[in-house]
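Query structure, 234 tokens:
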């Protein structure tokens, strides 16, 4: 799924950049846009989330947790502060909806093997955007930074655990992010497709009360990782 999302988004970026480079049109749109100190906008997009597991002991592949992820979608706002001609500071709070299924292959019963996790995140990244010189009506960039999220679907405080069929995750998670994109200056607004990888730095797992739980005892750390494809309008 991640590969197809990446190919789709890259094709859009490449096609748009090609049109700007080889078009005979040389009318400069939004000439003074990048001179503004503050700009605002919104974004729409889609995501795919996964988990990365670190284990206490290597007990064999049959005990590793298999993650099946499905695509989700994103929506949010953008605040952009101009530092200089090539550097911008960005705040991009948004809502991210996703689902992941965890498969424990050592169990035979479906109710024991499968844990479905539907998550709704309030995701708040603080990013630094490094742009190249504007060429005609487009400008490539890379972006990186840190972020935090609040999982509105978290059951961290649920007294029930996997013994009662409840897989628990923490409410708050921290991440680092890295991505790239292209700004396209259209007649009325700036349109920006971008791709960003997101990697958790904190442990999201709430462990079971039973210290020998087959679900959590061998997991040293469980952290989200994701791929975001966003389309920004400013």
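Result returned for the query:
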């Amino acid at each position: 799924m991640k590969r197809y999302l990446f190919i789709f988004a890259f094709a859009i970026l490449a096609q748009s950049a090609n049109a700007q480079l080889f078009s005979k049109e040389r009318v400069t749109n939004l000439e003074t846009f990048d001179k503004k100190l503050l700009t605002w906008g919104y974004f729409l997009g889609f995501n795919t989330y996964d988990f990365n597991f670190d284990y206490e002991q290597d007990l064999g592949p049959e005990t590793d947790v298999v993650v099946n992820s499905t695509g989700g979608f994103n929506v949010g706002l953008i605040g952009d502060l101009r530092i200089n001609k090539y550097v911008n500071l960005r705040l991009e709070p948004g809502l991210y909806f996703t689902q992941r299924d965890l498969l424990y292959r050592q169990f035979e019963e479906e109710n024991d093997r499968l844990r479905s996790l539907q998550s709704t995140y309030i995701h708040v990244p603080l990013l630094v955007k490094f742009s190249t010189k504007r060429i005609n009506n487009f400008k490539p960039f890379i972006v990186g930074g840190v972020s935090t999220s609040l999982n509105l679907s978290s059951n961290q405080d649920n007294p029930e655990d996997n013994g009662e069929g409840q897989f628990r995750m923490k409410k708050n998670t921290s991440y680092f992010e890295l991505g790239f994109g292209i700004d396209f200056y259209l007649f009325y607004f700036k349109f920006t497709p971008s791709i960003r990888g997101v990697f958790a730095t904190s442990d999201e797992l709430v462990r079971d009360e039973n210290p020998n739980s087959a679900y959590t005892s061998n997991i040293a750390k469980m952290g989200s990782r994701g791929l975001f494809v966003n389309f920004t309008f400013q």
